[in-house]
Amino acid sequence: MLRKKTCIAMLLAGGQGSRLGILTKNVAKPAVPYGGKYRIIDFPLSNCTNSGIDTVGVLTQYQPLELNAYIGSGAPWDLDISNGGVFVLPPYQKGKSGEWYRGTANAIYQNMAFIEQYHPDYVLILSGDHIYKMDYNAMLDYHISHGADATIAVREVPWEEASRFGIMNTDPDGTIVEFEEKPQNPKSNKASMGVYIFTWEKLRHYLTEDEADKNSSNDFGKNIIPNMLRDKQVLVAYDFNGYWKDVGTIESLWEANMDLIDNPMPMNMHDKKWRIYSKNPGMPPHYISEGAVVTDTLITEGCEVYGKVNHSVLFAGVVVEEGADIEYSVVMPGSIIKRGAIVRRSIVAENATVGAGSIIGEDSGNIAVIGQGVTLPAGVSVPSGTQVDESYTF
Q1: How far apart are CA 339 and CA 378, in angstroms?
Q2: Could you tell me the pTM of the whole model?
Q3: Taking a C-beta distance cutoff of 8 angstroms, is the pair 314, 300 a contact?
Q4: In angstroms, rounded to a whole number, what is the distance separating the alpha carbons of residues 38 and 40?
Q5: Residue 96 pLDDT more than 50?
């Protein structure tokens, strides 16, 4: 028997990420690069480590290969321990039947045997596609002190955006009295962050009940939480006031990268007491040539810059050739921007090549995207909002 844990985390990392378009064509959303040296999943994993939660199940499904390889033994996040650690949990065949995860609640239900190994008092449910720093231990203390059956992290969003979120309506003491999924006329602007703590005994009961309901969507927001409210269970809202970004769309991922260039950053990435850990690519220091012009830009190891870069994020191993001009863009690991190319308000995915003299994106409009491994010919033009993969024809 494994040693009992007070709280373990289950990280939902299996979403297809269709709103990220060609960026998730071959990669699970949580494995998408972010911020020069990270991947999205680094944030919830680092939060777990910093919060003292040392047992994490990562539920994968869609295009898991790169994500699985990236997580490995969990060493970068100090999660390679003998009693606990990080575990990749794909769907698997049980007896003669095997099935994909049908929803967020079903994904947890299918892994109840994993959870039961640790006999936890509480289970923390996380999403793998949000950028934020959060002390889950403080949230757990709040859950315990309020005698809650479920605690849902919320943050206030602008009223005009509230209809895009799951909204928690609460009493003055923070008790949740109603949950509305993307309401047309919201009564509150407290949006669910998709971070939940459940008392395991209660969650186990509701997961089992939900699984038996053939009409259920097997979803936390649509089924588990409303069912608990119906039964007058104690649900409380935990207010979070820090930086939080759902990077589920091209525009929001681009914005979250641009946020890191702001001075001061809206999220302190230099906090030595709450580090965000990642897998180090082990490359040499970056090089900026004498003729290069670099302003307001994050540059990671292994980069070689000979051209002009302004207000952009360059990931590890990026090469910007002489005469190339990059502005307000995100260039992911291993990509090459050839001589004389112009890149504006764009995302260039991993190991792509932008041909000499090509023009990518525009000074306004939606973000242009060059897909992973794509090699653009010289002298082509890619308008704003265009997504280019291997099948794109010029």
Answers
A1: 9
A2: 0.92
A3: yes
A4: 7
A5: no
